[in-house]
Input
Amino acid sequence: MFLKGFDEQLIGIKKNEVKDLNAVMPPNHPKKELANKKTIFKCKILNVKSPIQNKIDDNFAKAMGAKDLKDLKQLVDNQISSQYVQALNSITKKEILDQLEKNYQIDLPENLINQEVDLMTKNLKSEDKEKHKSKNEEIAKSRIKLGLLLNEIGEQNNLKVSEEEVKSEIQKQIKGMPGQEKMILEYYQKNPSASQGLRGSIYEEKIIALIKTKIKLEKKSVNTKEAEKIIAAFNKPKSDEVDTKKTKSSKKK
Output
C-alpha cells in the first residue's frame, strides 16, 4: 500500500531511471516522530512489467491454493456465502442490542458518560466536539448501558473466554491474511490492548449467542438476491441523515 499520491508520481518512469518522490507520512505512523512528516523517497526503477491475462483452469486454481478449478469455485462460493451470513448476523445482533437497550432503564453516573465521550472524541478538534456534543453523549450512554447489560448477562451465566479461544481467533485472522502471519502475531504480542479488545469481542459474541438460545427467533432461508436487499435496506441512510448530506452537498456547490 503506497502513501497517498506516491504511486501517481511513478507514472511514465522507465527502467533504471531514478526519481525523487515527495510524500507525507500518515498521522498514525508507528513511529510518532515520523507522523505527518514531509519526506523524499529516492526511487530507482528496477523493472517494468505488464499484466497478462490468466487462463482460468486447474493450474490457475492450484496456484490459488485449491485442488482444481471445481474446488476453487466451491471455495469462492463458500467465501461469498460466509460474507452474507456475517452481514446478516450483524443485523440480527444490532436488532437484539436495540431491544435490550429499549427494554431496560439504567441511571448512569454523569462522570461515566463524560469519560466515555472523552474517550470517543479524543482525536477530534474542539469545534467538532462541541458541534456533535449531544449526539456523542447519546452514543456514549448507549455504549455504557449495553456494556453493563451484556456484562451482567455474562456474569450471571458464568461465561468466560479462554486463552485457547483467543489464540483460535488470531489463527482465523492469520488464515484470512496469508503471508502476513508474523506481522499479525507480532501485533498482538506488542499490543496487549489489542488482545484485550479481541477477548472482549469474543466475550460479547458468546453473550449474543446465549441470548439467541433464550429468545424466539424467526428463522428464514434466503438466496443471495434477498440477502442483498435485506443488507441494503439495513444500511440505507435514515431520512434525517439524507437531508443532512443534501444540505452539505448544496453548500459545497
User: Anything to note?
Assistant: The chain has four domains: 7-44, 52-103, 105-156, 161-214.
